[in-house]
Design goal:
The complex is a heterodimer of chains A (142) and B (108). With 142 residues, chain A is an alpha+beta fold. Chain A has five helices and five strands; from the N terminus they run βααββαααββ. The chains are: A alpha+beta (142), B alpha/beta (108). The A-B interface holds A 17-21, 23-24, 27, 37-38, 41, 44-45, 48-49, 104-106, 108-111, 113-114, 117 and B 31-35, 37-38, 42, 50, 52-55, 57-58, 60-63, 86. The complex binds adenosine-5'-diphosphate and magnesium ion.
């Protein structure tokens, strides 16, 4: 995958109301690159779910988006508590989000399933007590 | 039908209407944001009772034509201005989500 362009974002873990800024910015950037609306939608929703997870579950982290000829890669890294059982976390409806988060409309346990749904590949590396690294890929058919 | 036309015909109030010419192609009802992002289609009118700032981000990313706050719910402080700034049409309905959807059904 020969890289054309990359974007980096620090995701603030303290400000939930601003969560999603990186994804909204990525959407803008990808629009400028002239990618198809469907591709942009898939990338930005998958990234948003990951970004929200870093804020809710991991106290923030770092996001990187790499645009290449054949694919867009989204890399999310945090130093949060990690995910003990990834298979369980992937199940639709599974969530450890607190009630305060649920009252805002998050915590439905559909974030990781959406990340899978909207990407061509999803890889989760996580170590309890160390952090989580997620790599998602959306192929470009051109 | 455009969002501006919907406002005029469906007895809705516009809290923000920065993109009134946007065409509405369907309807989605839901309050859980990940469900909206997973199921709503681009161009849908999204009916919800969620009124916080995250709704603006979700509407942007899911590319909905407009957000309709049902049940007389008012946007949280600063959300109407945020919607205006982000180019998101934010409409207010005094009716229930169901009755709001029925009106859309007649008009679309
Ligand atoms: N970055 C992360 N760090 C730690 N735990 C995470 C992270 N992302 C997801 N999880 C865990 O996986 C669960 C499922 O995530 P998700 O499907 O996005 O649902 P939700 O965010 O609504 O709880 C979360 O409730 C949490 O326990
Ligand atoms: Mg989530």
């Amino acid at each position: 995958m020969s890289e054309v362009l990359s974007f980096h974002f620090d995701v603030d873990g303290n400000d939930f109301t601003c969560a999603g800024q990186a994804s909204v910015q990525v959407k803008k950037n990808l629009r400028r690159l002239g990618l198809s609306p469907e591709t942009i939608r898939r990338v930005s929703i998958a990234m948003y779910e990951g970004e929200i997870n870093m804020v809710i579950h991991a106290g923030g982290g770092h996001a990187e988006v790499r645009v290449a000829q054949d694919a867009i890669e989204i890399i999310l890294e945090d130093k949060g508590p990690g995910i003990a059982d990834i298979e369980k976390a992937m199940q639709a409806g599974y969530s450890t989000a607190p009630d305060t988060i649920r009252s805002l409309g998050f915590g439905a346990g559909m974030g990781l399933p959406n990340m899978k749904r909207y990407t061509d590949s999803l890889d989760i590396q996580s170590t309890v007590g160390v952090g989580t690294r997620i790599v998602m890929r959306v192929n470009l058919d051109n | 039908m455009t969002v501006s036309e919907l406002v005029a015909r469906a007895d809705l109030k516009a809290a923000a209407l920065p993109d009134g010419e946007r065409e509405i192609t369907g309807v989605y009802i839901g309050d859980l944001l990940s469900w909206v992002m997973g199921r709503a289609a681009s161009g849908d009118a999204w009916i919800t009772i969620m009124s916080n700032r995250n709704v603006a981000a979700v509407a942007t990313l899911a590319d909905t034509a407009c957000v309709i706050l049902a049940e007389g719910v008012q946007p949280d402080e600063g959300v109407a201005a945020l919607a205006e700034q982000k180019g998101i049409n934010l409409l207010l309905s005094g009716a229930s989500a169901y009755d709001t959807a029925l009106r859309l059904r007649d008009l679309l």
